[in-house]
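PROTEIN DESIGN WORKSHEET
SECTION A - STRUCTURE
LENGTH: 120
TOKENS:
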């Protein structure tokens, strides 16, 4: 892995930031009674993805960085699960789900690639 200047240089961080923006826009139309439930859960889990990438990149140890990337993967799986629930409840359309799921797949691949590059 080449020397990282800043977490903001990572494409996976940039993509995750855009993903959070999409999540906030999508959940804006959720029922008001979900504000302290599913809406909050999805938003918090999505924010956790780039936040953990940033925190891990700021650490001095590759092992710590890798651990924070795994936490980001866990948060990504949380969001994916919550979006499936949102789809089942008809809070989002299949088109919205498909778009967000495509981004999830992309972020997952980037995170796994970054983890693999840290291992070598």
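SECTION B - SEQUENCE
RESIDUE ASSIGNMENT:
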């Amino acid at each position: 892995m080449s020397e990282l200047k800043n977490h903001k240089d990572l494409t996976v961080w940039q993509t995750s930031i855009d993903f959070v923006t999409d999540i906030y826009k999508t959940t804006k139309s959720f029922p008001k009674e979900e504000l302290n439930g599913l809406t909050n859960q999805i938003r918090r889990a999505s924010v956790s993805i780039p936040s953990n990438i940033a925190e891990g990149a700021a650490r001095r140890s590759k092992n710590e960085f890798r651990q924070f990337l795994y936490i980001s993967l866990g948060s990504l799986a949380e969001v994916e699960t919550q979006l499936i629930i949102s789809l089942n409840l008809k809070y989002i359309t299949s088109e919205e789900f498909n778009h967000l799921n495509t981004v999830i797949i992309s972020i997952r691949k980037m995170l796994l690639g970054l983890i693999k590059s840290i291992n070598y």
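SECTION C - NOTES
The helical segments are 11-27, 35-58, 62-88, 94-119.
The CA atoms of residues 66 and 115 lie 6 Å apart.
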